[in-house]
Amino acid sequence: MSEAVCLITGVGPGTGAALARRFARGYAVAMLARDADRLGDLEREIEGATAFACDVSDAGALRATFERVRSELGAPSVILHNAVGGAFGDFLAIEPAVLERNFQVNTMALLHLARLAAPAMIDAGHGAILCTGNTSTYRGKAQFAGFAPTKAAQRILAESMARSLGPRGVHVAYLAIDAVIDVPWTRKAYPDAPDAFFCRPVDIAEEAWHLVHQPRSAWTFDVMIRPDIESW
Q1: 140-to-87, 128, 148, 205, 223 alpha-carbon distances in Å
Q2: Rounded percentage of the chain residues whose pLDDT exceeds 70
Q3: Burial code of 21-43, b = ≥16 C-beta within 10 A, e = fewer?
Q4: CA-CA distance, 96 to 202, in Å (whole number)?
Q5: Is the pLDDT score of 159 beyond 80?
Q6: Opening angle at CA 21, ends 19 and 26, nearest 5
Q7: CATH number for 25
Q8: What residues make up the domain containing 205?
Q9: How far apart are CA 202 and CA 22, in angstroms?
Q10: Which of 9, 56, 122, 124 is most enclosed, with most CB atoms within 10 A?
C-alpha cells in the first residue's frame, strides 16, 4: 500500500473509464460504479485498477466501500467524483423523486466522499478532490429541471470545500464539459456530426490529470472545456 491511491466514481465506458486509464499510470485506482460486470471488464483491462461495485447514492454503501478501498489499497489522496444522475423534463413533467435521487448522486455523494477522504489529506498536507460537471451547472434550461439544480448545488459545495481545504493543502477543482462527449450512444444520437463536434474522453482525462497536479502557486477551481467548434 505504498502507491498513491485515486478513487473514481461513475466509472462507465466514457469519461470514467478514460479517467481510470489515465490515473492508473501513476496511482492505484479504485473504480466505483453500480455495474459490477462492466467494472470487472475494466479491472481486467487496466493494470493497477480495482473494481468496487457501489451505488454512491446510498450513503451507507459508499461509506463501507470507502473503508474497503482504504483497507485494500490505502487512503485515497485523489478523489474524482464523476458519477452523475440525470433526467430530462421540465419542472411540471419530472417526478420529484428523480430530482431527489440525482441530488444524492451529484451533491450528497460528494459531501460524503469529501468528509471521508479530507481528514487524511489534511494530515498529509496534500490531496485533490475534483468533480466533473457540465453546462447544466451554470444554467437552468427548461428541460434540465431534473438535474441542473443538483449540479449547481454540487459546484457550490465544491467551491465551499475549496475555500476551506485550499489553505490546508488540499486542492478542490470543478471541471465542466461544455460539449457532447464522444461515446457510442452520442454517436448514434448525432450520426451526421463530424468528429470535431465531440469531446473525447481521453482529452477530458488529460485535463483532469493536469488539474490534480497543478503547482500550488497556480491552482484553478473553475475550468470549462469544449471542442474548438462548439458555439458558446
Answers
A1: 13, 28, 6, 26, 19
A2: 99
A3: bbbbeebbbbbbbbeeebbeebb
A4: 35
A5: yes
A6: 95
A7: 3.40.50.720
A8: 5-225
A9: 8
A10: 9
